[in-house]
Amino acid sequence: MNKGKKIESLVGEALLKKVKELDNLSKEEKAKACGYYTVTKNGVERVNMMKFLNALIDAEGVQLDSKQGGNGRGGRSASYRISVQSNGNLLIGSAYTSQMGLKPGDEFEISLGRKHIRLRQIDSDGNPAEEE
């Protein structure tokens, strides 16, 4: 595929964009096209899938390593920041819903502002709850 000089490994938004462009290729071919391979002394190209997958995870903003000193509790603490996922979704994690005492099935009304989203909980009568 890439004869001659090896390309620089892509990261971040450039990596995500390139992977989307190469939708029809296998994951190994995508990794190679994004620069995640080495050439052995015998001239054989070897794909480095682990580096490629880790770069994709980083580009998506997923944090797998804990930054806390290990206080014996599982999970992550709330950072009060979220990122739009590659599929366009926003995911509000359980750290926030448990902090608010929310249960499965609780409903919200969504209102969109210019650069914000407001959620108002719907009460049992189907009406937006009063703001505190």
From TrEMBL:
Residues 79-124 form the SpoVT-AbrB domain. It comes from the Bacteria. Pfam families: AbrB-like. Keywords: DNA-binding. This is AbrB family transcriptional regulator. It comes from Floridaenema fluviatile BLCC-F154.
